[in-house]
Amino acid sequence: MAPRVDPVASDEAVPPRADVVIIGGGIIGTSAALFLAQKGISVALCEKGHIAGEQSSRNWGWCRKMARDPREIPLIIESLRLWERMNETVAAETGFRTCGIMYLGESDADLARLGPYAWRTMPTLPAPAGQRQGLCAGPSAPGSPVLLRSS
User: Fold this and answer.
1) Contact by Cβ (8 Å): 147, 104
2) Bridge-based pairing state of the strands 133-137 and 101-105
3) Residue 83 — left, alpha, or beta (φ > 0 → left; ψ -120 to 50 → alpha)?
4) For the whole model, what pTM was predicted?
5) What is the H or E stretch that residue 102 is in?
């Protein structure tokens, strides 16, 4: 089930003029409209259904630094910087929270499935800026859990 999305009221009339017309009221369209409006550019945002009512409201909402391709780290750092200020920016509660992320597994095979940028290689790499990371392994007895954590 998708999360409840607060409705966004539409204007009653199409504006007679706009500097930019954006088609699509998902995360990309609304973000583009927000940043353009902040620069004083008039924007008309057109959406066939409800603003943030399609896939943008149904993703897992992960804004994570952990287990990413190192080339993505600057982008996610900027994304988190923007999201951490979004309530203030839009003068509303967005629901965004930072709480860390964990991957759990029971074997080395589970760790391997996390991919080339997962924890097996992370202890030898410096943590990305602002990230604590680590590998916590349980007792070596068969069936003991292995815990991967980051915050």
Assistant:
1) yes
2) unpaired
3) alpha
4) 0.66
5) strand 101-105
- What pLDDT does residue 46 have? 94
Run of H or E including 89:
helix 86-90
**Do 118 and 67 form a contact (C-beta atoms < 8 A)?**
yes
User: Does residue 43 sit in helix, strand or coil?
Assistant: strand
Rounded CA separation 99/63 (Å): 10
User: How many CB atoms within 10 Å of residue 15?
Assistant: 10
Alpha-carbon dihedral sign for residues 113, 117, 119, 120: positive
Alpha carbons 52 and 85: distance in angstroms, whole number:
19
3-state helix, strand, coil in the chain (%, to 5): 30, 15, 55
Exposed/middle/buried for residue 93 (C-beta within 10 Å: 0-12, 13-18, 19+) = exposed
**In this model, does residue 122 exceed pLDDT 80?**
no
pLDDT in tens, 44-83: 999 998 888 877 766 656 787 777 778 888 888 899 899 9
Tell me the C-alpha distance between 127 and 67, whole Å: 10
